Amino acid sequence: MSPAQRRALDLLLPRFGIPFAPVPIDFEREYGRRAPRVLEIGFGMGETTAAVALARPADDFLGVEVHAPGVGSLLKRVAELGLTNVRVIRHDVVEVVAAMIPPASLAGVHVFFPDPWPKKRHHKRRLLTPGFVHELALRLAAGGCLHVATDWEDYAQEILATLGAEPLLENLAPGFAPRPDYRPLTKFETRGLMLGHGVRDVVFRRR
Ligand SMILES: C[S@@+](CC[C@H](N)C(=O)[O-])C[C@H]1O[C@@H](n2cnc3c(N)ncnc32)[C@H](O)[C@@H]1O
Fold this sequence. Notes:
The chain is an alpha/beta fold. It has a seven-stranded mixed beta sheet, with helices on both faces. The chain is globular, with a radius of gyration of 16 Å. The chain has eight helices and seven strands. Strand 1 (37-41), helix 3 (47-55) and strand 2 (60-65) form a beta-alpha-beta unit. The site of S-adenosylmethionine (SAM) has 19 residues, from strand 2 and helix 5.
């Protein structure tokens, strides 16, 4: 972790962080207003989170990430950009969703470039299992969207099939979706494109 990330964690986590606790989040109290809320899962270094939150000031964003340097990096961006619509939880998102996110409380869920676990014997570690997708679908309000992007074609196909099999969700496109304009290109995407991987967006709506 860089000294700047460490400093950001120490100084800014108390201000913009929500500690993990098995208690539903009171979003209006946390953000000081009532606005559509988007959960971002595994934000990495937070470049995308900060860019999207800056471009969409009317929406509130909750980033969940386990990697401490990434959390420090996002907090630093939040402070530098003066963002008031971002909160961060440093914890395993599966536990956060189960314990802290009330049913039908989200307008969106973003999962950008989840760890692909490319080796077949590691596929079981992939985050977007049918069970977790169902839990996410339950947290979306009607009309809210689950948006996943990946540059791993076999994971993209698996995600499309998994979301397609979830009865609470419906696909907005015939298959993969065009990249929604709010999602900027990330370094993973640029790398993927350089490796010759296509990038797939999957956008499903809560019925
Ligand atoms: C491949 S990176 C992508 C980062 C970022 N979304 C981007 O597009 O640059 C995947 C991220 O998901 C995080 N992650 C993986 N499993 C997680 C979990 N169970 N809870 C929270 N974060 C997780 C990892 O720490 C990592 O930062």
